[in-house]
Write a structure and sequence with these properties.
One of its GO terms (biological process) is cell differentiation involved in embryonic placenta development. Pfam families: GCM (PF03615). It is found in: Nucleus. The protein is an alpha+beta fold. 20% of the residues lie in helices and 19% in strands. The chain has a domain of 121 residues: N-terminal domain of TfIIb (Single Sheet), CATH 2.20.25. One zinc ion (ZN) binds next to loops.
């Protein structure tokens, strides 16, 4: 394809940066929500997209202070693994979601591996020049812009759904049959961040 085949609008769609004063508004097609944005990805979502509004990610990301209040910044917390590198059924590895809250995360690292009872350890994310990957989100009129900076250098943590399913399984094993099973909401699920407008 000749470079001329790109018209100026297409170029605008590809070359924006979250810090631009003017983000493209002539968007013909918005992206499907991406659960695992990686490798310097940029996405333009519809402002109606619920997941984009909440700035969700399947990576364990926590809010980070940003000098620009119009841009929401989140950084990756990595993944919690078994220090014995054990394998569960079907050779699956233990890749737990780091808790978002600092205190809970410290507590989490004192827990034992759910598979072999070995000590757990946190692998921090160093995918952005030795620092955690940051995702930037900005709500601008009809669109939500998402820019990911860096490439995750660690395995994917289990998703929130997988983490909940595992906790439920554990409870089924330990709870007596007469006790009704209640899905406990994880603390991170309660914190629903909405992008600043
Ligand atoms: Zn283990
Ligand atoms: Zn990461």
């Amino acid at each position: 394809m000749e470079p001329e085949d790109f018209d100026s609008e297409d170029k605008e769609m590809l070359s924006w940066d979250i810090n631009d004063m003017k983000l493209p508004q002539n968007v013909k097609k918005t992206d499907w929500f991406q659960e695992w944005p990686d490798s310097y990805e940029k996405h333009i979502y519809s402002s109606e997209d619920r997941n984009a509004q909440r700035h969700l990610s399947s990576w364990a990301m926590r809010n980070t202070n940003n000098h620009n209040s119009r841009i929401l910044k989140k950084s990756c917390l990595g993944v919690v693994v078994c220090s014995r590198d054990c394998s569960a059924e079907e050779g699956r590895k233990i890749y737990l979601r780091p808790a978002i809250c600092d205190k809970a995360r410290q507590k989490q690292q004192r827990k034992r591996c759910p598979n072999c009872d070995g000590p757990l350890k946190l692998i921090p994310c160093r995918g952005h020049g030795g620092f955690p990957i940051t995702n930037f989100g900005k709500h601008d009129r009809r669109f939500i812009f998402l820019q990911s900076k860096g490439e995750h250098d660690h395995p994917k943590p289990e998703t929130k759904l997988e983490a909940e399913a595992r906790r439920t399984m554990k409870k089924v094993h330990t709870a007596s049959a007469s006790v009704p099973l209640k899905l406990k909401e994880s603390p991170e699920a309660k914190i629903k961040h909405t992008l600043p407008r």
